[in-house]
Amino acid sequence: MTDRTSLVSLGDLAWDVLAKPDTMLLPGGDTTGRMELSGGGSAANVAVWAQRCAYPSTFIGKIGRDRFGELATAELQAEGVHTALTLSDQHPTGVILALIDRRGQRAMLTGQGADWELLPGDLPLDVLRGARHLHLTAWSLFRDPPRAAALQAAHAATTAGATLSLDPGSFQMIQQLGRESFLKIVDDVPFDVIFPNDDEARAMSGERHPDAAMGWLRERYPHALVVLKMDEDGVMIEGPDCPRLQVAATRDPLIDATGAGDAFGGAFLAGWLRHGDPRRAAHLAVQVGGWVVSRFGARAPADDDLRARLARAASVQEPA
To answer: N or C: which end of the chain has fewer CB atoms below 10 A?
Structure first.
């Protein structure tokens, strides 16, 4: 049973293979580069970053009964994240290849592993009914399974009083599924917070400019707080009780953007659930996001810089 204060994140837990070539990849060619292996998956990353920001988190998902699953689980638990996992003998743990270019931008190749096979019968309903907040990513909605499980989880959590957030996940997957098909699914999810990035907002709204995309999202989802992530342009936020505001990005150098949006989302939710102030939550989140993009991987080991950023944010966030 979770603590009623907890954030529960449901969906993808995978093993990340990060690759940043030193030169352009050529057919039949060879080059050197930087490689790293670590636990990943958008939903799992959100849980890790909420926990790193001192907000208790739990992860629900499905992994293979294999070594990658053991390693990914061990990394989550080492971060202090509680886990409610289903083990599959039929499907391996998912693997994600992240190819990172010289500018730090990444392209992802996602293997469809056990996390894509989560079924309604796999859900720990006691955990969901005890949650303060449930976070979903659209990776749990793009196909079924795991869509039915994600929608049932949302129903169980919100019926018990939890708030709900959604990360639209991937502009390319939205396009492949079809904009109208994706919107039909999302329209039935009663989320309180949505975390699109610039590309996802354009794919959903059909609008090219962030201001227009924000207007469309607010009209389509009037009860939701929209947190529009705009990379080096920071974040734009607007909701039913929050007039439109922008928070600037940090000036950290871009080394690798992998997982930066997840880290932002986990940090934002940690702040927002703690004190309910979107602006203060965004200031914490941009600091965390800036730290992540200036490191390699979604969950680089915490260092003195990160601890100092979190301490400064906490000194501002906590009431006197």
So the answer is: C
- pTM (2 decimals)? 0.93
Cα separation values, 36 from 125, 258, 289, Å: 35, 12, 20
User: Could you tell me the maximum CA-CA distance found in the chain, to the nearest angstrom?
Assistant: 62
List, for residues 192-207, the tens digit of each pLDDT value: 999 999 999 999 999 9
How is residue 143 written in tokens?
């196909």
Sequence-ordered list of residues with C-beta below 8 angstroms from that of 66, at least 6 positions apart, any chain: 92, 93
For the record, the structure tokens of 45 come out as 């990353």
* Nearest alpha carbon to residue 166 among 186, 196, 132, 194: 194
What is the mean pLDDT of the segment spanning 95-101?
88
Residue 7: is it exposed, middle or buried by C-beta count within 10 angstroms (0-12/13-18/19+)? Answer: buried
Give 103's pLDDT tier (boundaries 50, 70, 90).
Answer: confident
